[in-house]
Specification:
With 302 residues, this protein is α/β, with parallel strands linked by helices. It has helices spanning 47-50, 80-93, 106-117, 145-149, 151-160, 167-177, 189-194, 201-208, 211-214, 241-250, 266-269, 271-284, and strands at 2-5, 8-15, 19-22, 25-28, 31-35, 58-62, 100-104, 124-128, 228-233, 255-259. The protein has 12 helices and 10 strands. Helix 2 packs across helix 3 and helix 5 crosses helix 6 (167-177).
């Protein structure tokens, strides 16, 4: 499905009904908007690990502007701020009141900006394997990439995160680096997940050669009053446990769950633990239910 949003066309998909039948009648479940990472990927890699969330919520999967199945745009418009505005505009068009934004990796950067820029509109945050800054946060208790994969893999990571999208770097990424996005025992997973997403190298290069160096929200975390769950992985070298702890310590009242045997894809590596944490969070700190629109007021988008 597509929606015209802020001068472009965003693709989105929906998994699960908003209204559920119970013995007492119909009830409304929360709506989660799953914001993918990259930047430069799309929502495909999220689907296997997050699919079970349909049991407790409706899940909307957008492709951010210029990525996946969404329409082409000038790459300079693919800022974190603009993508945050796009997500919230999509929620407005779909009449999703108080959405739960689940941001993974760079999708967490977008979700944090949305919570700061649209404070009264975000019902809750689930920040998964993400960070408030790309400034390295030392974490002596977590294994580094060099310790796990060796210096050559660390050199490949440095090239990727400096915006090198060459075929040679891409080949080295898949061979030396991708398996170590997961914890030991799950290293066959990242290749399968990456294969589910279309890549937008120009968007990735734009981010890592410009906005990435300026991304630092640590000083603004106290401004977020939205109920927040932070989930990190003990083997995540991309957004290490120290980054999760920084988020949880900075956002007032945030809950922190660290999955010791997970890497950067905690929702796929430890799915049962991940889903239990999200379900408990939604039960304990559920945002106010969305109103059921009348036929005359319903949007024609869905």
């Amino acid at each position: 499905m597509y929606a015209s949003i802020n001068g472009t066309c965003l693709y989105f998909d929906v998994d699960g009904a908003q209204l559920r039948a119970t013995p007492d009648g119909l009830t409304t479940v929360p709506t989660i908007v799953a914001v993918h990472g990259g930047p430069g990927f799309d929502q495909g890699y999220l689907r296997p690990g997050l699919g079970q969330l349909r049991d407790v919520a409706q899940v909307i999967y957008p492709d951010l502007r210029g990525q996946g199945r969404s329409g082409p745009v000038p790459v300079q418009t693919c800022t974190l701020e603009q993508m945050a505005d796009d997500v919230m505009t999509l929620c407005g068009q779909l009449r999703v009141d108080q959405p739960v934004l689940l941001g993974h990796s760079a999708g967490g950067f977008v979700a944090l900006h949305a919570a700061l820029r649209h404070r009264d509109c975000v019902g809750a945050l689930i920040l998964c394997n993400t960070a408030a800054t790309l400034v390295p946060e030392p974490d002596p208790g977590a294994p580094s990439l060099t310790e796990r994969a060796g210096p050559e893999a660390a050199q490949v990571a440095a090239r990727v995160f400096s915006g090198d999208g060459s075929p040679e770097t891409g080949e080295a990424f898949g061979r030396l680096l991708a398996p170590h996005y997961a914890a030991p025992g799950h290293q066959d997973g990242p290749g399968r997940l990456f294969a589910l997403s279309r890549q937008a190298p120009a968007v990735m290069q734009f981010f890592f050669t410009g906005p990435a160096a300026r991304y630092d929200l640590r000083g603004r975390l106290t401004e977020i009053s939205t109920p927040t769950l932070v989930i990190g992985g003990g083997y995540d070298w991309v957004c290490p446990p120290a980054a999760a702890r920084t988020l949880a310590a900075g956002i007032p009242g945030a809950d922190l769950v660290l999955l010791d045997d997970a890497g950067h894809f905690s929702f796929s590596e430890q799915p049962q633990q991940f889903h239990r944490a999200v379900a408990a969070f939604l039960t304990d700190r559920q945002p106010r239910p969305a109103p059921v629109p009348t036929p005359s007021a319903a949007s024609g988008t869905l």
